[in-house]
Amino acid sequence: MSGFRGRVAVVTGAGSGIGRALGLALARRGARLALSDVDEDGLAETGRAAGELGAETFRQRVDVTDRAAVIDFAEVVADRFGAVNQIYNNAGIALGRPIVESSFEDYDRVLAVNLWGVIHGTKAFLPHLIASGDGHVVNISSLNGFMAMGELSHYCTSKYAVRGFTETLRIEMRAARHPVKVTCVHPGGVRTAIADRAIDQELANGRIISAAQEAQRRRQAAFALRMSPDVAAATILTGVGRNRGRVLVGRDAKLVDAAVRFFPGGYTRALGTAGRLSGRSGSAA
Ligand SMILES: NC(=O)c1ccc[n+]([C@@H]2O[C@H](COP(=O)([O-])OP(=O)(O)OC[C@H]3O[C@@H](n4cnc5c(N)ncnc54)[C@H](O)[C@@H]3O)[C@@H](O)[C@H]2O)c1
């Protein structure tokens, strides 16, 4: 079992949702925490709650798309704690929009956070994790890291790529006998702010024209994202503790994993037909 007590754990996107729940679950298990997010208020709230649980907590505003800032953060954390053991590359955003309506900038934005953020965090912290003699990289993908859905091309592309990057890292760490474990996490729907933030972004851009469309999207998100972040975080840490290469979070993720294995080509046809019947270009979560 990998341990948590006394280990220095870094969490990106710690100001909300799964990142906050991970921070607090790690605090309960006795980890020393370095928390980051772009949302300083959310980050302060997580830091306060982790402090109340008795955890030594350091927090810094870091935008994971900013390579220099992430590298600087890694140095600051290593200096402050003397070692770094675990990084949870969790920060992420979503966007629901068909490919024909998407701009190149839409892809830039989502890939910058969801893919480059993970690459930045992994690369910046890896030398410190190796030096610790007991490192662990935990990258948060999604069930959309093995199943595509209509209107989520930006998100799916980023999450499939996170899986490829993370599984490659696991092979390389093992081949080179580096003391770094690697886990790729695939959550199903978790009750967080991610979908509402994506809808808010669409509203800010004037993309969702009717109140009915907005209400329908929020209803769909509430239906699909059900698991509590605390349960998700506990599942993730159990997998990390057991050094699982791949952690599926939630029954939906397990079901989708099985469905895609059995119908690797057929599922896209089924979702396309469902999208046509519902009048949307796919069945986005
Ligand atoms: N909620 C789900 O159903 C679900 C399912 C599968 C995967 N995930 C993944 O879990 C991770 C956490 O998402 P969540 O659901 O908790 O969402 P959330 O919106 O509640 O939290 C995401 C956090 O990331 C932060 N963030 C966004 N852009 C950032 C940036 N550039 N730099 C630093 N921080 C940034 C946000 O401020 C926020 O605090 C994401 O990678 C997401 O893709 C979520």
**Gross geometry:** globular
Q: Which sheet architecture does the biggest sheet show?
A: 7 strands, parallel
The CATH superfamily label of the largest domain reads NAD(P)-binding Rossmann-like Domain
Could you give the order of the helices and strands? EHEHEHEHEHEHHHEHH
Read across the widest sheet, the strand sequence of neighbours is 3-2-1-4-5-6-7
Task: Give your account of this protein's structure.
The protein is an alpha/beta fold and 285 residues long. The model has no long low-confidence stretch (mean pLDDT 95). It has 10 helices and 7 strands. It has helices at residues 17-28, 40-52, 67-81, 104-132, 153-175, 194-204, 211-224, 229-241, 251-262, 266-278; strands at residues 8-12, 32-37, 57-61, 86-89, 135-140, 180-187, 246-249. It folds into 2 domains: 8-191 and 229-275, 3-Layer(aba) Sandwich (Rossmann fold); 193-225, no CATH class. β5, α5 (153-175) and β6 form a beta-alpha-beta unit. The site of nicotinamide-adenine-dinucleotide has 29 residues, from α1 and α6.
